[in-house]
Amino acid sequence: MRRVAVLGATGSIGRQALEVIAADPGLVACALASRTQSLDGLALEHGVEHVQVGGELPDLLDACEPDLVLNAVVGFAGVGATLWALERGVTLALANKESLVAAGDLALAAWRRGGGLLLPVDSEHSAVFQCLEGRARDTVDSVILTASGGPFRNRSAAELESVSVADALAHPTWSMGPKITVDSATLANKGLELIEAHYLFDLPYARIEVVVQPTSVVHALVRLRDGAALAHLGHPDMHVPIAFALTYPERRETSAVPLDFSAGLELVFEPPDVDRFPLLALAREAGERGGTYPCAFNAANEVAVAAFLDGHIRFVDIAPLVAEALERVEGAPATDLAELVAADEEARRLAGGRVAL
Ligand code: NAD
Ligand code: MG
Fold first, then answer.
1. Contact 88, 80 (CB under 8 A)
2. pLDDT given for residue 355 in this prediction
3. Do the Cβ atoms of 10 and 42 come closer than 8 Å?
């Protein structure tokens, strides 16, 4: 029996994970965490003893001693839990991409010390992980992350000036929490995923490509050095990568509907437009600069997205706000969590100052 701590249990990923756990006799939830929402109903339904609303996630993890941590918290708030699991060699099923983006170097060092498994839940990274499995590193040329292009793929720059929060939340292919849905509309999500892939798969940025595949059927591709490319396909359904990570390496059945290839499935690929969606290029730049630039990119983006969702800024203000914050931060590497938290706070302060103007 695998005991799973579900962090972010009331969220989109957390709820789908609880469905996967309930359907699998080999899995049991041992802890639930949320930020503010009550967990009483879920705790009762899933028979979970350790429950925490707010507070420090490592305290909950110390108390429940899980076999696997599913980090499905949103934002930098997930950093402590990611480092807790990696440091101890406890299997980490990681949906919370922001923690790996912000704390990449610290996380890799903790992962090396802990020696445990880090299983991506993000669909693209789960797909890459599966395409890379069992393959010698020197046979791999590069990785291609696919993006849906979001709800504004076909909107002109002029049209983007007046899109609403509701427009941004209407994702064409995935149903997700509000923050990642806005990130998908700006393509910041793919920028975060680029940095996530760099750390997860130990690849230089030049060997990670992003391509738009509007139906989200191809989750990622891996190019091999002989000219072949492997792809991972499926309907956009997060139950698959969640179940993959929770049951690894057993790969159990899921509720996902299989693709019908004889029904005239057409796959279209196109390049992303970094002029209309500059956050993708900014993320690449922040990743390549390294140090705490990715942390600052993430922090400023979190502030900007929250301000957009609260109606304080327009959709088109998000990218310039992040760009300005990045220009003003120092970006020096963090040697410990306290320094990382300070870098995160500094970028939030800079971005927050712009929101208030
Ligand atoms: P969501 O907004 O639906 O849920 C977020 C959850 O995190 C909630 O349960 C909330 O209470 C909890 N939370 C937030 N701050 C917390 C804190 N300080 N302590 C404890 N709990 C806290 O978000 P989501 O869409 O489920 O996404 C979660 C993470 O997974 C994000 O990092 C996102 O980028 C990633 N992700 C999501 C999807 C998806 O399909 N939803 C796909 C890939 C990756
Ligand atoms: Mg993704």
1. no
2. 84
3. yes
pLDDT computed for residue 129 by the predictor: 98
Q: How far apart are the CA of 179 and the centre of ligand 1, in A? A: 8
What per-residue confidence (pLDDT) applies to 357? 65
Give the mutation target among 7, 13, 18, 190 for probing the ligand 1 site: most ligand atoms within 8 A of CB. 13
Going 204 to 148 to 187 to 278, the CA torsion angle's sign is positive
Q: What confidence score (pLDDT) does residue 354 get?
A: 84
Separation of 264 CA from ligand 1 center, angstroms? Answer: 35
State in Å: Cα 124 to ligand 2 middle.
5
Distance (Å, rounded) from C-alpha 73 to C-alpha 99?
Answer: 9
Task: Please give the C-alpha separations between residue 216 and each of 29, 124, 133, 156, 266, in angstroms, as whole numbers.
Answer: 30, 10, 22, 22, 12
| Rg, Å, the chain Cα set | 19
Indicate the average pLDDT of the chain.
Answer: 97
For 32, 171, 326, 354, 355, the CA distances from 313, given in Å and listed in that order, are 34, 20, 18, 10, 7
Structure-block tokens of residue 155: 């909107």
Give the closest residue (by CA) to ligand 1 atom 6: 8
The ligand with the least distance to the CA atom of 53 is 1
User: Which segments of the chain have a pLDDT < 70?
Assistant: 357
Beta carbons of 127 and 219 less than 8 angstroms apart: yes
The CA 266 to ligand 2 mean position distance, Å, reads 21
- Which helix (H) or strand (E) segment is 227 a member of? none
